Amino acid sequence: MITDPLFDIRGKVALVTGASSGLGENFAKALAARGAVVIAAARRADRLESLVSAIRAEGGTAHAVALDVTDPASVGSAVRKAVELAGGIDILVNNAGVADTKASLDLTDADWRRVLDTNLDGAWRVAQAVAKSMIAAKRPGSLVNIASILGLRQATHLLAYAAAKAALVQVTKALALEWARHGIRVNAIAPGYVITEMNRDFFQSEPGQAMTKRVPQRRIGSPRDLDGALLLLASDAGSYMTGSVVVVDGGHLVNSL
After folding, report:
1. Is 161 a catalytic residue?
2. In this predicted model, what pLDDT tens digit does every residue of 49-89 receive, in sequence order?
3. Of 124, 161, 179, 193, which one is the catalytic site residue?
4. 208: exposed, middle or buried (Cβ count in 10 Å: 0-12, 13-18, 19+)
5. Is the predicted pLDDT of residue 249 greater than 90, yes or no?
């Protein structure tokens, strides 16, 4: 187990949405490696069970919970199950998301709704349900929304995704203001381009290499590059931070202003 008094989360209960792959899987492993009890939530039960088994094999504590963030009933059930399994929730990593790379003129209403319903509405549903459970238990906590630099800048063919992430930034700030009196901190991480199984082939291609050259650090991030920001916001090291958006992008955002 990795321990650091400043970033100590041992025994804290962390609900991670979208944990079956990509960034969510890494967030779950990073928190578990530092002693948190992880509730891994997503739709793909088989992938969740593999993740939970891997965490337990490393000496961590984890449970799998089925969750579809687009379904209010599923959200309520998942949060109740998390509380039953671990006694309460201290940390939420609101990570579930989808993208649709289409020109704005080609976007259908169904395309738009699918992205917004997961990335924005879904994040709000989970945040509200977790906050209600924290308040009912008089249990302070930390909510970490996973936004994107595309919530702070523009790109082509990602209109719905960028709109959802920009709105999530404002949701983060509004909830931070409203829930501070309950001891609930609400912050966001805005990652730049990060390698996952979904985009690895693209970043190895010629267009992907060209995009990499536009990042001042001349590299694409790895999921572990987000661990520091996550631990800062999830632990008491960030106890005086709420309403913050921490950009982790190798300088991409400042290079495009």
Report:
1. yes
2. 999 999 999 999 999 999 999 999 999 999 999 999 999 99
3. 161
4. middle
5. yes
